[in-house]
Write a structure and sequence with these properties.
34% of the residues lie in helices and 21% in strands. With 461 residues, the chain is α/β, with parallel strands linked by helices. The protein has four domains: 6-149, Rossmann fold (3-Layer(aba) Sandwich), CATH 3.40.50.2300; 179-279, Transcription Regulator spoIIAA (2-Layer Sandwich); 281-399, Transcription Regulator spoIIAA (2-Layer Sandwich), CATH 3.30.750; 405-459, OB fold (Dihydrolipoamide Acetyltransferase, E2P) (Beta Barrel), CATH 2.40.50. The protein is globular, with a radius of gyration of 23 Å. The protein starts with a strand and ends with a strand. The structure holds S-adenosyl-L-homocysteine, iron/sulfur cluster and FE3-S4 cluster. FE3-S4 cluster binds next to helix 2 and helix 7.
Amino acid sequence: MEPIHFEHNRAAAGAIARYYESPPLAYVHSYGCQQNVNDGEKIKGVLADAGFGLCDAPQQADLILFNTCAVREHAEQRVFGNVGALKSLKKQKPGLIIGLCGCMAQQPAVVEKIRQSYPFVDLVFGVNGIDTLPQLLAEKLAGGNKRLLQAPAERTEIVEQVPIRRDSRFRAWLPIMYGCDNFCTYCIVPYVRGRERSRRPADVLAEFRGLVAAGYKEITLLGQNVNSYGKGLEQPIDFSDLLELLCKEPGDYHLRFMTSHPKDASRKLIDTIARNERICSHIHLPVQCGSDRVLREMNRHYTVAQYLDLVEYARTAIPGVTFSSDIIVGFPGETEEDFEATLDLVRKVGYMQLFTFIYSKRTGTRAASMPDPVTHKEKARRMARLLAMQDEIACGLVAGLAGKTQRVLVEGHGRQEGTLSGRLSNNLVVEFAGPAALVGEYAPVHFTGSRGTILTGELAQ
Ligand code: SAH
Ligand code: SF4
Ligand code: F3S
């Protein structure tokens, strides 16, 4: 399917300009994954294109937009809490427009809840409406107090060349695909983000070139399952081919990508990472759990043995490679034995980083109707055991790097007063003393020790 190209909506921008005495200000806050953060950057770009200024404080704003995440109940509750807290601001400032968009807005039940219980929310639109935002706002402004609460729009075309205001001047998100077709039984993403669609390689390359030309050093390719990139495109291409294509571009940059689904992670991908120095030697390979029985129940389509095989292959092919993972603790029916199998796997792989979540029931998913007899208290206990083990593993791995010198990308100030914080190719963070002018640049750093999972070091010459 041909993509649509974004066009500036002059009529809507004109209507917005006529409505406000001076250029209005927008506050946009994104929750959730990097895809959503990237959407938030596009929302800001589209708003700027329609004449809005952007601000960092909701109190100053004429428009407040929450770009939401629905992946766990806790994420949704946080959003409802933060939206609720705006009630008094809206009272003081009746002209304020409060909007909710993103993944939560894709769920009819959420839209209904907003309609019923949050009368001060004026605008709701889903993940497919970013480019139409100026038009929606013009409509809202013309309609006075009328609320615009949209049912999620079914739309499958990709919109290219959407204006964007990136949060960083040296690290950029680059989505290569949207949606997800995997339907892991616990996960809401395929329901809220729709079917998987890949961007055309030419469009990815054009954006990539623009980023390199603008001086971006770290470019992270995004997709819910980057390893299935290319399905449905006219041009036969897979994710490894795309990586090869991008790495040919001259410039001073490096590449990361996420998320790599283990079921489709191939040896070809590993070989591609091994061949290309520009690709970081870190693979985020979410395993979710270490029990084959639970993996089947989760609909993950791989076994622990297959997963370990891939990890082994990568370790041999890519010197110094590190792994990180997502783990769900307390999936419905997870037994003590299943959980111990997870601990066992975590120990075997030796992850540098783990993102751990207690299972959260998502209405509409298959797992939501599975019996879930284990108490929350027991799940929390399992989580604590996992975290303790991971902490020990990561601290050991980090400490083992002391004495080495590597090039890092300086990301900002460190937690320790007067230090800078840099990221290694393997995704670890090092803190060291140095001039603030280094932020956004590469610097060679010698690692002298560690503090927990953070390396400490000094600038090398
Ligand atoms: N597409 C990515 C992950 C996207 S969601 C992948 O397949 O790996 C990010 C993480 O949130 C998942 O890896 C999973 O660990 C966690 N997650 C998703 N749904 C969840 C749920 N219902 N409860 C708890 N954790 C969940
Ligand atoms: Fe969710 Fe699975 Fe898709 Fe990841 S691959 S987004 S966990 S359904
Ligand atoms: Fe959340 Fe939507 Fe991402 S549900 S994790 S923001 S795709």
